[in-house]
Amino acid sequence: xxxxxxxxxxxxxxxxxxxxxxxxxxxxxxxxxxxxxxxxxxxxxxxxxxxxxxxxxxxxxxxxxxxxxxxxxxxxxxxxxxxxxxxxxxxxxxxxxxxxxxxxxxxxxxxxxxxxxxxxxxxxxxxxxxxxxxxxxxxxxxxxxxx
Length: 147
Prior knowledge:
By secondary structure, the protein is α/β, with parallel strands linked by helices. The protein has a single domain (2-142), classed as Rossmann fold (3-Layer(aba) Sandwich). Helices cover 37% and strands 16% of the residues. It has helices spanning 2-12, 25-35, 68-74, 86-97, 111-115, 134-142; strands at 17-19, 40-44, 58-61, 79-82, 102-105, 129-131. The strands form 2 sheets. A 3-stranded parallel beta sheet has the order 1-2-3. The radius of gyration is 14 Å and the shape is globular. The mean pLDDT is 96.
């Protein structure tokens, strides 16, 4: 699966994976990172540690529901998105508001393909960057400050 390979490559490149800590793509990215010896942080919407997927090495239960997406966005050097629904869109928007670099894989259904190469508003001159491969993403991440 693409998301698991992404997690593996992020860990092998020395990056900490921060997600919402639940299932689906979040779990797959965490699994890839965890199995490659990486650190995975799950910022949970609930107040229960048990809600985290089994591949989270650091669990932060917030009890904030979707508002936890602000914490997720602020905890990252960049937002990386695969597909995504409304929760992913909110993370992309918070990343935009806080001027985080945003990288999307648009070959999957969801918000990632809808926002690729776009500005969300006119406040910032940058655009959301499209990535075609994991290797391309890693190169872009390595060019960032704090990387």
